[in-house]
Amino acid sequence: MRKSEDHLMPKVSVIMPIFNSERFLREAIESILTQTLRDFELIIVSEHNGDDDSDNIVLEYMKQDDRIVFLKNEKKKEFHSQSIMG
């Protein structure tokens, strides 16, 4: 849920799975955040990004925009973001 004063659920939830996505992550996040529709949440699901700086990039953006939700899979295992769509 968005951390806003009105505590209403956003109209749209955008789910972005990431895995060693450092190279294009900033561009992808910026693309979503600059959409004309403002009533959304961006749920970023980290699938064990041990080899790059993707998680830190997400944390930077979270400080700037409260529409970002970060879910982190700490263990390297078979996890597919599609499973949360169920």
What are the SSEs and their pairings?
Blueprint: E1 12-18, H1 22-33, E2 40-47, H2 54-64, E3 68-73
Parallel strand pairs: 1-2, 2-3
Helix pairs in contact: 1-2
Keywords: Transferase
Domain Glycosyltransferase 2-like: 13-79
Protein name: Glycosyltransferase
Query: Span between N and C termini?
Result: 18 Å
Strand adjacency order, main sheet: 1-2-3
Our count of domains comes out at 1
Global morphology: globular
- Please give the number of β-strands: 3
- The mean pLDDT is 84
Low-confidence stretches: none
| Main beta-sheet strand count, sense and barrel state | 3 strands, parallel
- List the secondary-structure elements in sequence, H or E: EHEHE
**What is the CA-based Rg, rounded?**
13 Å
Percentage of β-strand residues:
15-25%
- Helicity level, as a percent range? 25-40%
Number of helices: 2
- Structural class assignment: alpha/beta
Brief account:
With 86 residues, the protein is α/β, with parallel strands linked by helices. It contains two helices and three strands; from the N terminus they run E-H-E-H-E. The mean pLDDT is 84.
What does this structure look like?
This is Glycosyltransferase. Belongs to the glycosyltransferase 2 family. It comes from Paenibacillus ginsengarvi. GO terms for molecular function: hexosyltransferase activity. The protein has 86 residues and is an alpha/beta fold. It has one domain. 27% of the residues lie in helices and 24% in strands. The chain contains 2 helices and 3 strands; from the N terminus they run E-H-E-H-E. The longest helix is centred in the first third of the chain and has 12 residues. The chain is globular. The model has no long low-confidence stretch (mean pLDDT 84).
